[in-house]
């Protein structure tokens, strides 16, 4: 029994250390190459304001979004500092309320266009976006004007006023661009929702910058994603007219990595404007799930699409950098196994102490194991300090206070999501049935888009491009 306990202890602590050093490597690269959010200088800001505006098509897939889509469009049309863009709202014929809401918007704004799906809903987000992309292509042929940039957004997104100008500026040199996605402010005691604050803050102010710098492929977050017309044209040609793969639950993730596979320059950009008393990040803001059950369902879809379907569709790459980040993307199920083992081991040690009044000999006499446990404790402390620092810089000190509590809750959610994703994937392989896409309920701040300003509609003829 003691030998088995020792084997499990060594296996667990070595696995924890392996994952810790994996994360520490990202910290090291970020430090060495000074990879962090960049301040937009006054000169760069002037260039962003003055350069010719590329024509942008913003695609939004909708299913039962009648309660927010009008406010989303009203609010963003009133705040976006850009002229040469159009919204394309995809709706289903059997979702009558959303169709009517979208058509009301189309009647008000010349930049809003409704695309009614040829199939009844719900299908999948990828299928809906493909229908929108086909409609945009037909519009380009009909108008003999191309959209230089295709963008992905969701019906709950609050777009930063400078977002499109930043994208217009950066897309001079790249064909695939991802901008940050951050949570809207929430109560510091709202634990589940704040988990996303922690995770996206660390990912989109550090990890994704490292990934972009090392050319490891920039996955799309599904919102705030920009693609050149050239890339869109090639990917559609390779995928039988489909912009996004419909046989995966994370079609956006697959899209981003395909840009790198096809040799297109990809980039993750995290920039901010320094205001008098605050730092204003140019990022998409939205609410994330507040209920633990909803978060588990959403993360199950993410894990299933990225870890399991991602391997089926993408396999491995020819480059070391991309393979390294593919490994990081796919390690979630292994994380859950190690977490379960580490918690079980910790509880067994504590139970032993409570029963016998002393720690087991394995901890007191095996100096190698004791040293490894101490090292893992120090490395986990570094991880927490990193998260404290990043969350504090972006969201303020108050939200930092419950980071350790949210870390434990996140472990619980992510572990259950990984196990459910594995079971769903195994069942789909066994039965041959594709896992069903499940939508997350969306919401907006109560007053967003309620009060709108009069917006002058223009044709922006100086920026139109001809394909005739």
Describe this structure in words.
With 468 residues, this protein is of the alpha/beta class. The protein contains 15 helices and 14 strands. 43% of the residues are buried. The strands form 4 sheets. The chain has a 7-stranded mixed sheet, with helices on both faces. The protein is globular and about 80 Å long. It has a domain at 36-190 and 204-288: Spore Coat Polysaccharide Biosynthesis Protein SpsA, Chain A.
Features:
468 residues, alpha/beta, Spore Coat Polysaccharide Biosynthesis Protein SpsA, Chain A, seven-stranded mixed sheet, three-stranded mixed sheet, 15 helices, globular, disordered C terminus
The CATH homologous superfamily name of one domain equals Spore Coat Polysaccharide Biosynthesis Protein SpsA, Chain A
Mean pLDDT equals 92
Biggest sheet layout? 7 strands, mixed
The CATH architecture name of one domain reads Alpha-Beta Complex
CATH topology (level 3) name of one domain: Spore Coat Polysaccharide Biosynthesis Protein SpsA, Chain A
Principal-axis shape: globular
Strand content: 5-15%
List the uncertain runs.
452-468
Counted beta strands: 14
